[in-house]
Design a protein that fits this description.
By secondary structure, the protein is mainly α. It has eight helices and three strands; from the N terminus they run αβαβαβααααα. Strands 2-1-3 form a three-stranded parallel sheet, sandwiched between helices.
Length: 256
């Protein structure tokens, strides 16, 4: 079996809802990194056999096979096809998997895996708005027969996991807070600079908050003293007895 290698990777900065990138068309966001990828790697763009792009909300500016429109918007060869996939929040990762699988199977030699979404322009849920506005049922008979009309969302999924494995809200918020703190420090240290292609005057990820601000928003005391070990993932066995989540002892962090 052939081996698959990642020969180059680049991204735009991560923007915020009303930040400098919010008005940039998703196809242009994608085009920007595609051009930069070709430049950095020096590959012949005509040798690319497919462009696989993850995008969850394929509506409005993100419709019409965004992988293809981004590639063409970048001025790259029309002979190269593109496909846009939706595996919800794993879409871009799945694009990488499909690209690797194409190479490992021997059916392809050079594939671009990518992903794009501008939630400032195309908000979450925009792809179901037509059905909602026109009174159309989002669920078929088979779905309703199996699951009823209960809420289906990541929020509900998180609650079910919390109930099944006994996670407590505060310990999860502490773990999330530490993750945000690490990201903030990494950005401040410039650890991501070499993977970013600046756009619209933005050179680093927007919306990064300081450790102190994050802690105040979460309503939590500092997680650890400087230089000490970070808190571990909550020690819970997947086979632990089902317990309900305890009510929060502090306000929920809102750091998105």
């Amino acid at each position: 079996m052939a081996e698959a290698f990642i020969v180059g990777a680049v991204r735009t900065p991560v923007g915020t809802r009303k930040g400098a990138l919010a008005a940039v068309h998703p196809a242009d966001l994608g085009a920007h990194v595609l051009k930069e990828l070709v430049t950095r790697t020096g590959v012949d763009p005509a040798a690319v056999e497919d462009v696989v792009m993850g995008c969850v909300t394929q509506a409005g500016p993100q419709a019409f096979d965004l992988a293809r429109t981004a590639w063409l918007s970048a001025g790259l060869p029309e002979s190269v096809p593109g496909v846009t996939i939706d595996r919800q929040c794993g879409s871009s990762q799945q694009a990488v998997h499909f690209a690797a699988q194409g190479v490992m199977s021997g059916t392809q030699d050079l594939v671009v895996a990518s992903g794009v979404e501008n939630m400032g322009m195309v908000p979450m849920g925009a792809n179901v708005q037509f059905a909602v506005d026109n009174g159309l049922d989002l669920y078929g008979d088979g779905w309703v027969e199996r699951y009823g009309r209960q809420e289906i969302s990541q929020f509900r999924g998180a609650q079910l996991m919390c109930e099944k494995w006994g996670y407590k809200r505060e310990e999860l918020e502490r773990f999330a807070l530490e993750s945000h703190r690490r990201a903030a420090r990494a950005i401040e240290d410039g650890r991501f600079d070499d993977q970013i292609a600046p756009l619209a005057g933005v050179e680093r990820d927007e919306g990064v908050r300081s450790d102190t601000t994050l802690e105040k928003m979460a309503g939590l005391t500092p997680l650890r003293e400087a230089g000490s070990s970070p808190p571990p993932w909550p020690a819970r066995s997947p086979w632990a007895p089902v317990r309900s989540c305890s009510p929060p002892s502090a306000p929920s962090a809102s750091t998105a």
